[in-house]
Amino acid sequence: MIFAKQLREGVRRGETTCSVRIWKNLRVRVGGRYRMEEGQIEIDSIEPIGFPDITPELARQSGFTGVLALLKVAKHGQGEKIYLIRFHYIPPRSSIPQRSKSKSSQS
User: Fold this and answer.
1) Residue 69, exposed/middle/buried by CB under 10 A (0-12, 13-18, 19+)?
2) Which sign, positive or negative, has the C-alpha torsion 53, 3, 5, 96?
3) Can you give the residue range of the structural domain that contains 38?
4) Which of 1, 15, 84, 91 is most deeply packed, by most CB within 10 A?
5) φ, ψ at 41 (rounded to 5°)
6) 82 located within any domain
7) Per-residue pLDDT tens for 76-99?
């Protein structure tokens, strides 16, 4: 999954944890991990939804200011199927703090 540049920081901070996509066919799977420029996202759930389900609150959760802004980005190609994809961000390994070895494991 690719995110518009203006959404990536919200994904990294954990503020954006879902995305609405309008695709012809499903392109991700639950449990799948997909690269972001730094780190990855892991798909937690995928739910088919309809246009009435795309509310201003859902748009904000997806990182947009409103429904129209979301819809301008959500449609990909000739897609007609609407999916709500929930995910979480996994930072790159180099930015995960390393645990120090305890003295008992050094013996």
Assistant:
1) middle
2) positive
3) 17-93
4) 84
5) -115, 150
6) yes
7) 778 899 999 999 999 998 755 555
Longest CA–CA span in the chain (Å) reads 62
φ, ψ at 45 (rounded to 5°): -160, 155
- The pTM for the full model equals 0.82
pLDDT tens digits, one per residue of 19-34? 999 999 888 999 999 9
Element (H, E) at 88: strand 81-90
Domain contains 51: yes
Supply angle C-alpha 26, 24, 49, rounded to 5. Answer: 65
Sheet holding 40-49, edge to edge: 18-23, 81-90, 40-49, 33-35
Residue at 60 is within a domain: yes
| Residue whose structure tokens are 């961000």 | 89
Name the domain count of the chain: 1
